[in-house]
Write a structure and sequence with these properties.
The complex is a heterodimer of chains A (about 300) and B (about 290). Chain A is mainly α and about 300 residues long. Chain A has a domain at about 80-260: MetI-like (MetI-like fold, Orthogonal Bundle). Chain A has 13 helices and no strands. With about 290 residues, chain B is mainly alpha-helical. In chain B, helix 7 packs across helix 9 (about 190-220) and helix 8 packs antiparallel against helix 9. Chain B starts with a helix and ends with a helix. In chain B, about 45% of the residues are buried. Chains A and B meet through helix 2, helix 5, helix 6, helix 7 and helix 8 of A and helix 1, helix 4, helix 5, helix 6 and helix 7 of B.
């Protein structure tokens, strides 16, 4: 071996294979506790759910026969099933769209330096920080059909002439639930997009200004393209989170007035109807939908 | 700068602040309304003749909720508060310890399937909680932990652990490798380098992650709803729901309970939000 080659190899870690390998074994030890905990509290329950979905399984009954796809058939033929898919789609897509748009607008505002910026940021983050039960209770009170402030205000403005039961009417209830979901979800999008904005080098803006570019040109030619990868990830994450959300709808309508999504329907099967088997089948259906999203997410990441 | 430009800039600023204040008022109105109603006397709240401003400041609703008297005589609000603190702090703390180790490992060591494992952990965070609830409930019952705070402490790790691992991994990736390498050249062992060099540097990331999991845990609904029926073991996120009962609901009391339940998490956020911003900037989105 020539001297040159030895010198070249000096910084090559494979020169100490045993040491390197021992070092990496420490790394695996670090990982083991996390993997073990996640296997017990996440992987095991998922497998359990899948097994459950093929059996007759009720908390009140020890008879647990294998029933094949009967639970799935029962879930899919349930009258509320198609509506729950449509609602989930509306809720996830429209909700995510608005969350990202509002988040984007606010992030652009917050990306400027101005007096009182951190106060403004805290105030804009509040809808996300306040516990869901607290804020949903406030919204429920505001939507109240007897004394709610929305009814009072709309009446005073002359928009309505009788009090409206916002959460009791089909269509209208979904709009209300969607509104609250967006209100709760935009701060997270704002923070993510803001983080993305702050990673764009200021030199690019300065150069564009020197060239005489206007605000719109800068936005469409620099900001948006630089943000593309962050934005696509943000949108997908937002869709998945909105897709999974259960709290808002359950606390506002309990799935009534045609507002069931797949997750609230699964909860109703399991804990209201006490049919764990149907709830499990519904959960597996949700998981299949989610797998499609995750597949897209992974492909997206591989492209980058 | 010419006078015209100065004037233009001033107008621009005024327009900016005008819209900012307008937007904030609009978006924070529900929170304002919650506070306003909590300070209203019970006779004044069930009326259509309301004014938008705060017309009276009456703390009696807070007093009754906090002491469990009057309309809140079935409530054990202080117990809910303590329970929430125990569950959220213990599960967040447990998660961050495991996650710091795992995050460091995924960011620094090289072994097979490293990226696959990291990706898998992120996917776990995206799982709907619904699919885990029933199996976890049967598991909890089998272990004899139904109606015990331990059940929630364990179960809250299903979301706080994967999230913490992901955050800590991203955070460690932003820290320069050279520092620990230098320490190791100077005779530190790998573990020594981690303890003396990396942990102090990772502190902002740890604080950001705990803040985030605290907020997530504090407002979780589905698990306390499914695992706890014992009144004295309830968490604050669902505890005051029993006050709501149709037309008889004491709305000022409900709003007071809601404000009280939000107080700890808002305070935590106020003190630690600057870490949260930095933490998110370093790794919340980037893979």
């Amino acid at each position: 071996m020539s001297v040159v080659n030895i010198l070249k190899n000096r910084d090559n870690p494979t020169r100490y294979p045993s040491l390197e390998r021992r070092d990496n074994r420490i790394g695996i030890y670090f990982l083991i506790p996390t993997i073990a905990v996640l296997l017990i509290i996440v992987a095991y329950p998922v497998v359990y759910s899948i097994v459950m979905s093929f059996h007759r399984w009720r908390p009140t009954d020890i008879n647990r026969n294998f029933v094949g796809f009967a639970n799935y058939v029962r879930v899919i033929t349930d009258a509320r099933f198609p509506q729950s898919i449509i609602n989930t789609a509306i809720y996830a897509l429209v909700g995510a769209c608005f969350k990202v748009l509002i988040g984007m607008g606010l992030a652009l505002m917050m990306n400027r330096k101005f007096v009182g910026r951190s106060l403004a940021r805290v105030l804009l983050m509040l809808p996300w920080v306040i516990p869901v039960t607290a804020s949903v209770t406030a919204w429920n009170w505001m939507f109240n059909g007897m004394y709610g402030i929305f009814n009072v205000l709309l009446m005073r403005l002359g928009v309505i002439d009788t009090y409206v039961n916002f959460l009791g009417q089909r269509g209208l209830a979904l709009v209300c639930v969607l509104m609250v979901g967006i209100w709760m979800g935009y701060p997270q999008m704002m923070m993510m997009i803001l983080a993305g904005l702050q990673s764009i080098p200021t030199e690019m803006y300065e150069a564009a200004k020197v060239e005489g570019a206007g605000t719109f040109t800068i936005f469409f030619r620099i900001t948006l393209p630089s943000l593309a990868s962050v934005l696509s990830m943000t949108i997908l994450l937002s869709i998945i989170w909105t897709f999974n959300s259960f709290n808002v709808i359950w606390l506002m309508t309990r799935g009534g007035s045609n507002t069931h999504t797949m997750n609230t329907l699964a909860y109703e099967f399991s804990f209201i109807n006490m049919r764990y088997d149907l709830g499990a089948a519904m959960s597996v259906v949700i998981l299949i939908f989610l797998a499609v999203f995750l597949f897209i997410y992974q492909r997206k990441q591989r492209e980058e | 700068m010419s006078l015209g430009m100065k004037k233009q800039k001033l107008i621009k600023n005024i327009v900016f602040y005008f819209f900012l204040v307008l937007i904030i008022c609009f978006l924070d109105f529900p929170i304002y309304w919650m506070i306003k109603c909590s300070l209203t006397d019970v006779d004044q709240i069930m009326t259509r003749d309301v004014s938008l401003g705060i017309t009276e400041v009456d703390f009696s609703a807070y007093e009754q909720v906090w002491n469990g008297t009057g309309f809140a005589s079935n409530l054990q609000f202080r117990a809910y508060m303590a329970n929430s603190f125990i569950v959220v702090l213990v599960s967040s703390g447990f998660s961050i310890i495991l996650a710091t180790l795992a995050g460091y490992s995924l960011a620094r060591f090289r072994y097979k399937h490293r990226n696959g494992i990291a990706q898998g952990i992120l996917y776990v965070y995206m799982f709907p909680q619904m699919i885990l609830t029933t199996p976890l409930l049967t598991l909890v019952i089998k272990l004899g932990l139904y109606n015990s705070l331990w059940s929630l402490i364990i179960v809250y790790c299903t979301f706080s652990l994967p999230y913490s691992v992901w955050m800590m991994r991203s955070y460690f990736q932003t820290l320069p490798k050279e520092l620990e390498e230098a320490a190791m050249v100077d005779g530190c062992t790998r573990l020594g380098a981690i303890r003396r060099i990396m942990m102090p540097l990772a502190l902002p990331g740890i604080v950001a992650t705990i803040t985030y999991t605290f907020v997530l845990g504090w407002s979780n609904v589905i698990y306390p709803l499914a695992f706890i029926t014992d009144e004295s073991k309830k968490l604050v996120s669902i505890g005051f729901n029993s006050l709501i009962s149709g037309d008889m609901t004491p709305w000022n009391g409900v709003m007071a309970a809601a404000v009280l339940s939000a107080m700890p998490v808002v305070l935590v956020f106020l003190f630690l939000q600057k870490y949260l911003v930095g933490g998110l900037a370093s790794g919340g989105v980037k893979s």
